[in-house]
Amino acid sequence: MTSDSSGNNRVQLAALAALIAVGVLVAGCSSKSEAKPVSHYPDGMVRLDREPGEKGYWDNPSATSLMEAGVTVATDANGKLANLDDASKVAPFQPWALALFKHRQQTDLADDPMKECIGPGNPRQMMTPGGVRFIQDRNYNRVYLIFGGGNRNWRVIFMDGRTPPLPDEVAGTFLGNAVGKWEGDTLVAESIGFNTRFWFANGGLPHTEGLKLTERFTRVTHDQLDYEVTIDDPRTYTRPWKAKWTLQWVPGDIEEHFCEDGRK
């Protein structure tokens, strides 16, 4: 082969590689541009729910068990650890809380209140199959979360600018008292005032009446909702810790489901 033909081959190969690179770049840009943008109200507020004339809800959470962000521990869909020795990795437990968590794991989650049709509470409700909708009440400055999983609970986040109450001023409930605000397109909700009759995670992570949750809901595209929660319960955990996962937009209506349907 002559040097001229070798040179021509190199030029042709370089040109082919450049075309492939451009094709990959164009395909990547095209796939990104295909993501449907987030809808907003006329005043600019993001819609966390359906657009006019649309049907849909959030479901298919990317996580099925609550654990600290960055931790990778194998569990099943019910939060049961594959290896009990991994228990201490799940969250920064106080000693008594770790012992209780291990006990619940060793007894196969037998005491889970959901087996008695007691609702899952927060943040477990955000990873319970069945779906959730956000009803943004612009008249009364409230956001309602309507759940299809568990026993079809609903909760309210007050958006009227009130300050969160002191813990001693709130009676303990299953869903707490939530006060919210907007940080850009992110809904931020602080909740306190929980009782201890529910499990806030399906694997049996404990909590006390001192639990405080800070939740962040961000609709990053039409079809994806990012959820982040900070758990702050000094009686149960040695420090505040975070967990995060995503939910996907599902066309249609939330299917009817009640806790009694799944009881044996």
Task: Describe the SSE topology.
Blueprint (H helix, E strand, L loop, with lengths): L2 H31 L22 E4 L27 H4 L4 H12 L25 E6 L4 E6 L6 E5 L18 E7 L2 E7 L19 E10 L2 E9 L8 E11 L13
Parallel strand pairs: 4-5
Antiparallel strand pairs: 1-9, 2-3, 3-4, 5-6, 6-7, 7-8, 8-9
Number of strands: 9
Largest sheet: 9 strands, mixed
Structural class: alpha+beta
Number of helices: 3
What overall geometry do the principal axes of the alpha carbons give?
globular
Percentage of residues assigned to helices: 10-25%
End-to-end C-alpha gap: 79 Å
Radius of gyration from CA coordinates: 24 Å
Average pLDDT over all residues: 88
The residue ranges in which pLDDT falls below 50 over 5 or more consecutive positions are: 24-32
Assess the beta-strand content as a share of residues: 15-25%
H-E order:
HEHHEEEEEEEE
Strand order of the largest sheet: 1-9-8-7-6-5-4-3-2
What does this structure look like?
- With 264 residues, the chain is of the alpha+beta class.
- The protein is 18% helix and 25% strand.
- It is built from 3 helices and 9 strands.
- It has helices at 3-33, 87-90, 95-106, and strands spanning 56-59, 132-137, 142-147, 154-158, 177-183, 186-192, 212-221, 224-232, 241-251.
- A 9-stranded mixed β-sheet has the order 1-9-8-7-6-5-4-3-2, with no helix packed on it.
- A hairpin with an 8-residue loop joins strand 8 and strand 9.
- Residues 24-32 have low confidence and may be disordered.
